[in-house]
């Protein structure tokens, strides 16, 4: 048996999210189907986490066990040839059997993108929220900073969250503006990218953070309100959940690049 | 009567090109339909030029005559609200009645984008040609330079071109590489953007230039072959027509920003 870790990017526009759903058409369903086609095995993959319907990924990861002897360097090409063009495997490595894409993940980064110009960009229309109204990006930066650290993020989690604990750590959070003239009172604000890196995220967490930060940017809330919202531990204290299309799972990081056992060693393991 | 000049961007993936076709579903059809809806007039628009099926535009222009009294600053929003989301009016100005979007155009720039990485980018899959094979970008630059100037571009025009003269002027042509390690013998070549600026372009001209330059990049032709191909004045001398999806009409430039008559003056004109 071998354990393979793969990195994928996908345009989530036409999918019901990453994880298998009763109604099908998820990223996981497509991946499992093509891996099964390739190997003849019934394979179950394990993602580093879910992404909601319409959310994209630049660097999602998943792992799965297989007894296939296909060399690791051939998987990417073989699977990409069978996958729809909006899902691409970008990397594949062999990892120790105990490795788990979610449990071993140390840092996950999401990016949320907002087009602040008067007219949205047709080429990114499915990857950016359009918000032509003036946003005070500096106030949003100050508000976002209150969320860094280890906190109970209940206020920023879906009411449907089934997690025992809502304590997570946000290591880094920043806002970058591309081609804009921030806060200049103009509608040509450019593209506002919000990056949030943490040890894990609750359901809708980044989208609720963004929905609340947009209220700060619009002047409807003060930046320091982010602190009291956090302390309230109540979903009702925060703002709305921002649209899924602006969200992208940017990257998943592991403590160290997992060991890649050599093919001969694998064959020896197989003989047990 | 007023003459309006508009700038539009569109994702051409799902259209049969800019210009009206018997089978419909062109950018022009959609624009004329929404302008007619808005004004109640039967309007014919005039583009700065055609773009083929699957070709995109960042800054296409068109003009049309209307007797509508809607203030110029309200057109963009009114039309965008009625257009499909892959077509956006980005600018609208009022110009003198004699102004013509094609005849007054002085410089047009096209960009052709090639993804030279092993795996294509899902988010740009409809806007970039995927060419994972190694390309000698420096050789492509040398080859491209032979095309600058005033020449008969018959070798780089579709055999179906109906133009009387194939003489055009290319003012500038350059290649820019984004996030790549050019010519380093690696497949991670980044994104190669080819920009060509001229006074006008023949049918398929940029795509045939790119198809031929790719052969130079692959080492199948020498850079100086571009000169003899040009001199041959024979379509058969050049390489294949590169796929439409990598091509984008980047911008259309006019000698001077056309005069924008003031609304009062227009009303006086109307009284004649």
UniProtKB/TrEMBL annotation, chains A, B:
UniProtKB keywords: Isomerase, tRNA processing
One Pfam family named in its UniProt record: PseudoU_synth_1
MF terms in GO: RNA binding; tRNA pseudouridine(38-40) synthase activity
Known role: Formation of pseudouridine at positions 38, 39 and 40 in the anticodon stem and loop of transfer RNAs.
Residues reported to bind substrate: 110
Active-site feature positions: 52
Record EC number: 5.4.99.12
Gene Ontology BP term (one): tRNA pseudouridine synthesis
Enzyme class: isomerase
Organism from which the protein derives: Fontibacillus phaseoli
Record's protein name: tRNA pseudouridine synthase A
Family statement: Belongs to the tRNA pseudouridine synthase TruA family.
Domain Pseudouridine synthase I TruA alpha/beta: 8-102, 146-255
Subunit structure, interactors included: Homodimer.
Catalysed reactions, semicolon-separated: uridine(38/39/40) in tRNA = pseudouridine(38/39/40) in tRNA
